[in-house]
Amino acid sequence: MPGSSEILAHWHYEPELWRDFVEYESRVYRKSVRSALHFIYGTIIGAVVLITLFSVVPYLVTKRWSSDIWGPAFGIGFIAAIFLLVGGIVWLMRREKMARFRAKTGEAVITLNEINVNGVSFRWDYGEVGWRFLSAERKSVDVTPLKRIEILELKFLNRIPASPGPIEDIGEWRIPVQRGKERDADNVIERLRANLLP
After folding, report:
1. What are the sequence ranges of the domains in the chain?
2. What is the pLDDT of residues 43-102, one digit of tens each?
3. Where are the alpha helices (DSSP H) in 12-125?
4. Is 85 exposed, middle or buried (0-12, 13-18, 19+ CB in 10 A)?
């Protein structure tokens, strides 16, 4: 399906609602940052252990430095560098997103193929490859024990063709629902779901 410029919703948030949403999103963000850091640390530790097992120990035993020794270390280091690069890019993107969210107020525009929240855009498709739309729902979430806000939560699947099977990753976006626009949020959900593959 080609990209659509039809605007399904264009919401402007009052400062209090935006502040509540950023507080909620910051909690989710901190958890994802911890996960990304654990992934980065795990990659580094795993690479060091594997390089030690496959290269340093054989070198200490044989006392010679040949391609049989440094080859595996190079391969492991190269793969670890790719994982670190991906982890670093994800961490930087999340940090940039939260920096833009920390403005005093916010604005969201939703089309059939894109979300733009405070200048942070995310695009998807409805096909079999790349980011594709999975689901959307309107939820009421706790900001504090005494305060709840309505959000629109969208889920996406990223499918990358690979051998022996495709690589898949699930992503989520949350958007606050402007007060008084709950019916509009339900209409957005219906329109997005209508474009799903049968």
Report:
1. 7-194
2. 788 878 887 777 777 777 777 767 676 777 777 778 878 777 877 777 777 677 767 677
3. 15-51, 57-62, 67-101
4. exposed
